[in-house]
Sequence to fold (236 residues):
Amino acid sequence: MEKTKLLYEGKAKKIWNTQDKNFLISEFKDDLTALNGEKKSSEKGKGALNNKISTELFKLLNDKGIPTHFIKKLDDNNMLHKACEVILIEVIVRNIATGSLTRTLNIKDGTVLPFTLVEFDYKDDDLGDPKLNDQHCLILNLVHHQDELDELRRMARKINNILKPYFFEKGLKLVDFKLEFGRDLNGNIILIDELSPDNCRFWDIESGESFDKDRFRQGKGGIKVAYENVLNRILS
Ligand code: 5GP
Fold:
């Protein structure tokens, strides 16, 4: 399967059409952005690492019965996946309070939440990805019916129940992460986008050190080494 026309260029990936309308190719870029694109940089090899990490995690989730768009990794930076209708909701799953949750609600950083929090953000850069409640999602026609919101929450919790113990065994706390979903040709909701240290937070169980994009957000450096560390733990 080969790339034909560029369909969309995002901050971390280019999405290409292929000869077959049922399949797309995601090209993982080395670009790093934070603060809704205000802070920009590039880290050679980051795209290939995220492609490898996402490939492993999509395979794991597929094996555990989570439907995803993943078909196969084509080469270092390219992944073949199903085409689908994107649902413009970022599903945020949180086990430990940090990031925007601590800023907006003044919860102490590092607080273990009494239960897994699932939130919806509007996937709209111009609006700065604002928080959504169920009624907003319905008014904006982001989903067809309340049942789809319930399904997004159900799938998000199931994914967390698979990934949290998986990473714990590898010495990492899965602090929080962002998921995206789409509808396949049959209208079924499937997991799309990527799963990588760009959209997940990982803290080392022993040291508390971040192994994710927070290193870039906080100007700490060592991005590539951190992402390689996550990949090596996954492969171990
Ligand atoms: P926060 O809301 O604290 O900034 O982010 C919560 C979690 O979702 C973090 O793991 C963060 O990486 C992820 N996340 C939230 N919004 C985005 C986004 O627009 N892009 C990416 N790549 N990750 C996001």
In short: The chain is about 30% helix and 35% strand. Residues 90, 92, 99-101, 129, 176-178, 198-201, 213 surround guanosine-5'-monophosphate (CB under 6 Å).
